[in-house]
Design a protein that fits this description.
Length: about 300
């Protein structure tokens, strides 16, 4: 069963195309990532799924039917922008937002306290929103998106402003929700998180889909012609040659894409003559490498 499906969706603002002929579907009970550079059309796409914006062309289907406002009680939404009342206290803010979703005050308060305990926010419940850091405000908005127990959760940059500990907390909650059968769609610039969490992805560039499908199939299609090298020494030893098509270096770690037909063993001998190699492994390309390659081809 498909939770949401976009068919030929387009949106234009003042003559500028934000989304063009976009199509993809998300299976129920999976986690799906929307990836793309700034201004690619990710947030516009998310907003069209919940009726904040209406597509100029195409159709959005949710839970097997064309989108209607009656679907909203079954959807949770975390916007990229802060959408909290700064003078309200955390607990009353959460209870208020949950009441808008149809929960009683008592039930909203019970759920809000549970989630605040879970995400180490209990001590902040009496505090005003304006007293919280950006990361803490992000956690409040995350809780607000969950309180009415939605079937479909849309998260726009959920890890923005979070340190590694709080990022791990939200990640663990997302995985638990997926295990419970919820469908989760999120956008992020954190490709490492998306690679570890998502079943499927859609890469948007300039409003168009340039890569879409199951993540494991996408990575397999790009082949095992990527070498990860951990080394000690000068990181400037790599260069494009008969073996190397492209590469990225990160201090004492390098990700190298081989030319078609290149022998990894010959590259190993070449590298070992220049630096001390502690690890040399042939792997599938990372999502970041695929992203750079696909966007580069799209621009070309």
């Amino acid at each position: 069963m498909t939770t949401v499906e976009l068919s030929g969706v387009s949106k234009t603002f003042d003559g500028v195309v934000a989304v063009r002929d976009l199509s993809f579907g998300i299976r129920a009970g999976t986690m799906y990532g929307l990836l793309g550079p700034n201004g690619a059309g990710k947030t516009t796409t998310l907003r069209m799924m919940i009726g904040i914006l209406a597509p100029d062309q195409g159709q959005v289907r949710v839970f097997g039917h064309p989108f209607r406002r009656e679907h909203l009680p079954r959807i949770g939404y975390l916007p990229e922008e802060r959408g909290l009342y700064r003078k309200m206290r955390v607990l009353e803010q959460l209870v208020f937002l949950a009441a808008l979703r149809g929960l009683s005050t008592a039930e909203a308060g019970r759920r809000a306290r549970q989630w605040c305990e879970r995400l180490d926010m209990a001590g902040w419940m009496p505090r005003k929103i304006e007293e919280l850091s950006k990361g803490m405000q992000q956690k409040v908005q995350f809780i607000a998106a969950l309180l009415h127990d939605p079937e479909f959760l849309i998260l726009d940059e959920p890890f923005a402003g979070l340190d590694p500990v709080n990022t791990a907390q939200l990640k663990n909650v997302m995985l638990e929700l997926k295990e419970a059968g919820k469908t989760i769609l999120f956008s992020t610039h954190r490709m490492d998180q998306m690679e570890r969490l998502c079943d499927g992805i859609c890469l948007i560039h300039r409003g168009r889909s340039v890569l879409e499908g199951e993540l494991k199939l996408i990575k397999a299609a790009h082949g095992k012609n990527t070498v990860e090298i951990h080394f000690e020494g000068d990181g400037n030893f790599l260069e494009r040659n008969g073996f190397v098509e492209s590469f990225n270096t990160y201090g004492n770690f390098a990700e190298v894409r081989l030319r078609s037909g290149a022998d990894p063993q010959e590259l190993l001998h070449l590298v070992a003559a220049k630096v001390r190699v502690s690890r040399f492994e042939l792997v599938e390309p990372s999502l970041e490498q695929i992203f750079i390659e696909v966007v580069g081809k799209a621009d070309a």
